[in-house]
Amino acid sequence: MNYVTKLAATALLATTALSGAAHAQDETFRFVMVSHIGSNDANMGWLTESLAAFEEKYPDVTTEYVSTNNYSVQEHVRLLEQAIATKPDGIAVPIVDADAFEGPLRKAIEMGIPVVAFNIPDARPVGERIPYLTYVGGDEYLTGLHLGEYALEQVAAGNIPQPTGVVCASHDAAHQGLKARCAGMKAAMEGTGAAFEELFIGAEPATARNTLQSYLQANPETNYIFTVAGWSSPWAWGVANDMGLSPDVDNEGVTVLTVDEAPVSIEGIRAGHLLAANSQGFWLQGYAPMEWLYWNKTLGYEPQSDILTGPVIINAENAEKWADLVRGVFGDEEYDNQNTW
Amino acid sequence: MADAAFKPLVRKHSEIGIFLIAILLIVFFAATSEGRWNNSYNISTILQITATLGLMTLGVALVVGTGEIDISVGSTFGMSALIYLFLAVRVDPFIAATAAVCVGALIGAFNGYLVTKTGTPSLIITLGSLMIFRGLAIALTSGFAFSIPYKERGGFSYFILGGDNMFNFGTFAGVNTGFLWLIFALVVLTVVLKLMPYGNHLLAVGGSSESAHSRGIRVDRVKLKAFIICGALAGLGGVLEAGKLGSADGSMGRLMELQAIASCVLGGCLLAGGRISLIGALMGAFVLSSIQSYLVVMAVRPQWFMVLLGIIVVFAALGDKKLRHWAHKH
């Protein structure tokens, strides 16, 4: 009887342990990235590719990428609230507007959903900001600043002309990150005596070209164009070229700088049309937030500081390596499709 | 037998189609989303979106009823949201809301005056307004958002102006207070349309403005009032959305005019004028918000989102048309 009881107890324990182990193995997580980058922006590819790589490494995790091609803060908050409604195991979101995002994100955190900010942080001091786990992303101000400083190094080396007028061409007048890029460039150019202006050109090619052409006609001293999106750099180069302003990288005429490790930026540099661009580690900005969410869910890990993924300068010397990397992520066909030169 | 009873109902109530579509979609969404769509948090979000879009839709329905159209409501919505946020922190939320709604009404008056006095098609006039006030909104914000910090959005004024949910207890997420304003507007406008002379005049003008004029109805005045109410409702929607978000930039309300017009058409309003259904238009807004929400919670990629939304809307419109065709067949 005693033996039978012990056997039964052992069997029960074993069953419980095995079912527990099976349960632990069966536990799955669903992380949602609620992004401001839609499929009309080449950078979405970095994020979705990195999410796919993450899923490959962690088969117990499903990732979802939610965004819109018709971006507004209003729309983004709606997407965020609807994502929260699905009660995911973690959320990664850029803090495009802290005042608009604070309510829904605090609710999510109260519901036990860990949040990682990516690409754009809550710029307020740590004690006042939304209590997310960490921020993973670049620093937009440093993006502009480092590109400006790189340009001045090239001036000193005699490779490009001294700046006399700098225009920061932005496609979204409301995007704080883009304004920060312009502010960084402005800071770098201070002391050179060059005039600086931020110009809203919009995201529609014909309008952007017209706006830029009018600006360059009215401001002939402008010899640096900084486009804060990679895809608008061919428009800027095209306008300057049509106006006979010699926009290729040499010691005369106009110099064009841009951003991002997008094919259009890299190929523009390789062709000698663009001086430089930058990478803020977009691939990492997709992958790392998922990693932190996973570690938080499984190990209770909480990062102790923000994690900067950039910027790093892309120039004629390293553009080929970047091209290889991007081709490896996007594939040759997609890379060529995104090269609009 | 059932057909014979149902056909007159469909003929008499143009909104029956959208109600049937809504029921079918709700059943489908609930059955296929594994609880992601049909949970109180999500339904609460859908109702909040329906509230602000619905207020705009009610106004557009009135203008459509007169045979005109107002495609500037998205910009009016955005302007009012900005004015509310700008004033709420400087004076008082209620005064700010009143001022914002008045600005909405003024934009409506501007549209209505130009349409009635110049005879220019309302599509052109309101297209111009759409651009003027969107441009102003972008210029006013200069790339920054107008906002009220989250911690300062306490108190009854902010609460009742869309700032939070009511009836939220336990796991039930409640309903945004903006929904109260929608119900209030629906009741008032239904009374005006069904029980007051203005309702008859509005539909008469939409049916045939010449005929209405010959019967002594002041066509211009009826249209002007419809535009003013439309602007005021879009303004109120903007206030409630700003109250919810606590922030607005120059893009606030962009493209919402198209959703409002689609809601009206889905809800049984005749674009040529003379026939509207307020409750149908609201149901149209609910259906659009629900479809959008379903696609989000099912994590449909952005490149397919618009395509699928468009396809579902087209199918819903076709289904509605087929139903009405069937009802009118003897």
Overall number of structural domains of chain A:
2
How many beta-strand runs of chain B? Answer: 4
CATH architecture of chain B: Orthogonal Bundle
Largest interface: A-B, 38 and 39 residues
Low-confidence stretches of chain B: none
Dominant shape of chain B:
globular
Give a short synopsis of this structure:
Chain B: It is found in: Cell membrane. The complex is a heterodimer of chains A (341) and B (330). Chain A is an alpha/beta fold and 341 residues long.
Description:
Chain A has 341 residues and is an alpha/beta fold. Chain A has 12 helices and 12 strands. Chain A has a 6-stranded parallel beta sheet, with helices on both faces. In chain A, helix 7 crosses helix 8 and helix 9 runs antiparallel to helix 11. Chain B has 330 residues and is mostly helical. Chain B has one domain: ABC transporter involved in vitamin B12 uptake, BtuC (Orthogonal Bundle). Chain B has 14 helices and 4 strands. Chain B has a two-stranded antiparallel ribbon with strand order 1-4. In chain B, a hairpin with an 8-residue loop joins strand 2 and strand 3. Chain B is globular. Classes of the chains: A alpha/beta (341), B mainly alpha (330). The interface between A and B is large, with 38 and 39 residues.
Topology:
The complex is a heterodimer of chains A (341) and B (330).
Chain A: H1 2-26, E1 29-34, H2 43-57, E2 61-66, H3 73-85, E3 90-93, H4 98-110, E4 115-118, E5 135-137, H5 140-156, E6 165-170, H6 176-189, E7 195-200, H7 205-218, E8 224-227, H8 233-242, E9 255-257, H9 263-270, E10 277-279, H10 282-299, E11 307-308, E12 312-314, H11 319-330, H12 332-338
Parallel strand pairs in A: 1-2, 1-3, 3-4, 4-5, 5-11, 6-7, 6-8, 8-9
Antiparallel strand pairs in A: 10-12
Helix pairs in contact in A: 2-10, 3-4, 5-6, 7-8, 9-11, 11-12
Chain B: H1 2-12, H2 16-32, H3 40-65, H4 73-88, H5 93-118, H6 122-141, E1 146-147, H7 156-163, E2 165-166, E3 175-176, H8 178-195, H9 197-207, H10 209-214, H11 219-245, E4 247-248, H12 256-266, H13 278-297, H14 302-328
Antiparallel strand pairs in B: 1-4, 2-3
